[in-house]
Design brief:
heterotrimer, A mainly alpha (243), B mainly alpha (427), C mainly alpha (138), A: 243 residues, mainly alpha, Four Helix Bundle (Hemerythrin (Met), subunit A), 3 domains, 68% helix, 0% strand, B: 427 residues, 2 domains, two-stranded antiparallel sheet, 16 helices, 2 strands
């Protein structure tokens, strides 16, 4: 047995001589991302789901770095993982009372969802391998760094693909903006509107009747609590809880 | 270093890169762990002296040098407890999440010119992003401890860290604006020369922004006077109440690591990084052609400079901790939202206007040896399609610099300090 | 290596002796192309869709949405990468990264609003179970 293992080790050495660390790191991050994504689906405890999601999105940020998109990777870490997921985890903590931490789905639902998911996965994988150009291995030269061109593009000036009439492309017309200035401004205003809206939606309201969650907290058992909650919420809807 | 291994020792490519990566990781780990040992001892001594007593004086000699080691041995030997209702996986993994976030941020921190784990084009952004991930360890620890007080303490601490990221980001953007790049190596390089080149002394707005940064950084790492989440552990319970022994020590290595990191970041962004107050290398006449040993020595001195500045920053943080009283949570939030954020925004606007009005600095006509270095922006896109033409069409470019700029060839992999390839875009 | 102690396995291994180590080491030696990233994106996307369909916890559904958006982002970044483009293939270039950036921003905005809605639902119904959100049912 030891002879066979030594023989196998000896046979491993020629491939070992050409280890491509980029591929190794890619597989590491890809396996973590996919495994944690599957764990999000399979887990029942919502806090663990949030944790696996954090790991999955962090590994995706690693994938972005490996593809050379450093700015997008850092944005993913800062905004997605450090912002959106913190928000999500706060929400999970606020609602992680004992009966709601692990809600199980019925098995028929699971089978149906599994079938749909499998079909979708097959279609996507097939299309991923269909195009020839996508299967060719990466080139060695990673190309120029992209933070500054991206920043310039967000201000409306494309340095990698200058507009047709601009001096950069040999013409004499004043620089025609073909960047992402308008989407950038729209997204800025959009974020402001969303933050104001979300803060307004989630504000503490002055209520004439007690909140369903407070009624539920004072009664016994989750089932009676839910029933009480529905009764008090419908009554609140009828009488109109004042905002 | 990988090139050295490949060329001199003839190692195969993959082995050279993995050895280099491992050496870098081990060095950074040593900086964090050794730093934590030293800082714990220093904290006890400083606290003692401020409180008019002596501190550790018995372990290992008159000054208690080995106190940290004794603490470490004690922590290792403690019983590993876990509360009964705790979520086992999350409870175990929370300290490591915190520590990983603290460790990963060191990847992009340069210790000298081009002595950096990975030279990222978006270095500043990456460091600030990863620092914000430490909050997950705190939240997980608070939740997994199965204790209401742990959870509340963790939520408060998380809210504090997340709120202070906003003014911290604004403070950090100012040196980025002055340097024209998010690359930490470039930002440090632009402050080479005399100490008047440091961004701290660039204009009064940057000076104020530095102090706002200090405030936000102290709040971000949950040090006093912003440490109510830890202090509550004395009164009620904090997020690490249920942690003992080695797991607890990981939380505190993460905290000291973060303290060191924000101090080192302040040093690189505002205090000149690895450049000393006097440009010794330039005065001695060292240039590109001097030879490799001189460059290694210069970089070694640079590392020492940065470590010294970062350690000074940490000591100042300890000094503040034992001097100022603790803030309440509403005072912490008031400081962030009513003071730090508006001041940071106003100073940012001030620096912007200063750059527009006085691009050449307050004092014009400085001799070459005293002026700000016109470092290069090592970005290949300046030479890409339409690159040179774009430079000519930009109005801020100095016409006298157009000729050397057009003729220069940027080399992304060059690691020689002070080489002036492409002249800077902003004069 | 542990199962090479069994005799039939040893025979099979000996038969495929030269090919097996190369096959096993193939993931670590061949450079990755766009297709590999697309596979990861597909898995993330599908997992997100299944998560959205399966979870009864409203926050679980939200996590599914995040996974879907991330799968799309991985695709965009893979198409835009100048490193992964292979010889002679075109890449989206900066456009893909800008789109990925905007997706991240909009996902953050959408998560904020969805969380506000979920919290309101929780306050009014004392549960985050979406199966119980049937007040408007006829």
């Amino acid at each position: 047995m030891s002879g066979a293992s030594i023989g196998l080790l000896a046979a491993f050495t020629p491939p070992l001589a050409a280890i491509n660390w980029h591929s190794v790191l890619f597989f590491l991050f890809a396996v973590v991302a996919c495994a944690c994504a599957v764990a999000v689906v399979l887990a029942d405890n919502v806090v663990r789901m949030a944790f696996y999601l954090v790991l999955s999105l962090g590994a995706t940020a690693g994938l972005f770095f490996l593809a050379g998109a450093e700015f997008v990777g850092a944005m993913q870490l800062m905004i997605y993982v450090g912002g959106t997921l913190v928000l999500l985890v706060f929400g999970v903590m606020l609602t992680a009372q004992a009966p709601f931490v692990a809600i199980k789905t019925s098995s028929s639902d699971r089978v149906l969802a599994g079938l749909v998911g499998a079909a979708l996965l097959v279609v996507l994988l097939q299309s991923a391998f269909r195009v020839d150009a996508w299967r060719r291995p990466a080139v060695a030269d990673p190309g120029p760094p992209t933070a500054t061109p991206l920043g310039m593009a967000l201000l409306g000036i494309r340095v990698d693909e200058p507009a047709a009439g601009s001096p950069a492309a040999g013409g004499s017309v004043a620089v025609v903006r073909n960047g992402y200035l308008l989407p950038f401004e729209i997204v800025s205003v959009h974020l402001l509107v969303v933050l104001v809206g979300a803060a307004y939606l989630a504000r503490a309201k002055r209520r004439r009747t007690p909140r369903a969650i407070d009624v539920a907290a004072s009664s016994t058992g989750p089932e009676t609590a839910a029933r009480e909650a529905r009764r008090s919420s419908t009554s609140a809807l009828v009488s109109g809880g004042r905002p | 270093m990988a090139d050295l291994l490949i060329n001199t020792f003839g190692l195969p490519d993959w082995l050279a890169w993995s050895v280099t990566a491992m050496v870098a990781a081990v060095l950074i780990l040593n900086v964090i762990a050794g730093g934590a040992l030293v800082f714990i001892w220093a904290e006890r001594k400083i606290a003692a002296r401020i409180q008019d007593r002596l501190g550790p004086t018995r372990t290992g000699g008159r000054f208690g040098w080995l106190q940290s080691l004794a603490d470490g041995i004690k922590l290792l030997a403690k019983e590993d407890l876990m509360p009964e209702g705790a979520d086992a996986l999350l409870f175990r993994i929370a300290p490591y999440v915190s520590f990983c976030a603290s460790f990963c941020a060191f990847i992009a921190l340069p210790f000298a010119f081009d002595v950096v784990g990975q030279r990222l084009n978006v270095g500043v952004f990456f460091v600030v992003a990863v620092l914000g991930l430490e909050v997950f360890g705190v939240i997980l620890a608070g939740y997994a401890s199965a204790s209401k007080w742990s959870l509340f303490g963790a939520m408060r601490e998380a809210a504090q860290v997340v709120s202070y990221e906003v003014p911290l980001g604004m403070c950090v953007v100012v040196p980025v604006m002055l340097a024209g790049s998010m690359d930490l190596v470039t930002i440090g390089e632009k402050q080479a020369g005399w100490f008047t080149n440091w961004y701290l002394f660039h204009d009064p707005f940057t000076f104020v922004i530095f102090w706002v940064y200090v405030t936000c950084a102290v709040a971000s790492v949950n040090r006093a006077p912003f440490d109510l989440a830890e202090a509550e552990s004395e009164l009620v319970a904090g997020f690490h109440t249920e942690y003992s022994g080695l797991r607890w020590s990981f939380f505190f290595m993460a905290e000291y690591g973060s303290m060191f990191l924000v101090s080192a970041l302040a040093a690189v962004l505002f205090l000149g990084g690895w450049n000393g107050p006097v440009p010794v290398a330039r005065l001695l006449g060292l240039s590109e052609g001097t030879g490799d040993t001189a460059h290694y020595l210069v970089r070694l001195v640079g590392c020492g400079n940065l470590l010294l500045k970062a350690t000074l920053g940490v000591l100042v943080m300890m000094w503040i901790r034992w001097t100022l009283p603790r803030l309440r949570i509403d005072q912490v939030m008031t400081t962030c939202l009513k003071y730090c954020t508006p001041i940071a925004a106003a100073m940012f606007a001030g620096v912007l206007l200063w750059q527009l009005a006085l691009p050449g600095g307050l004092v014009r006509g400085l001799p070459h040896w005293l002026s700000r270095p016109s470092g290069e922006i090592r970005e290949g896109w300046l030479e890409g399609p339409g690159g040179r033409a774009v430079q000519r069409s930009r109005t801020t470019s100095d016409p006298s610099q157009a000729a050397p700029r057009a003729a220069a060839m940027p080399e992304p992999s060059v690691s020689r300090p002070g080489s002036h390839g492409v002249a800077e875009v902003r004069p | 290596m542990m199962f090479c102690s069994a005799a039939p396995c040893a025979v099979a291994l000996a038969a495929g002796f030269p090919a097996l180590p190369l096959l096993a080491a193939a993931p670590f030696t061949t450079p990755v192309g766009v297709a590999h990233y697309l596979v990861v994106g597909a898995i993330l996307f599908t997992t997100g869709v299944v998560c959205m369909a399966l979870k009864r916890n409203a926050l679980g559904v939200l996590m599914g949405i995040e996974l879907v958006l991330n799968g799309a982002n991985v695709n965009f970044v893979a198409f835009s990468s100048s490193y992964l483009r292979g010889e002679g293939a075109a890449s989206l270039g900066l456009d893909g990264q800008a789109i990925a950036l905007f997706v991240i921003l909009l996902a953050a905005a959408e998560a904020a609003v969805a969380l506000a809605i979920t919290l309101n639902f929780y306050n009014n119904h004392a549960t985050v179970d979406v199966d119980q959100a049937d007040d408007l049912k006829g």
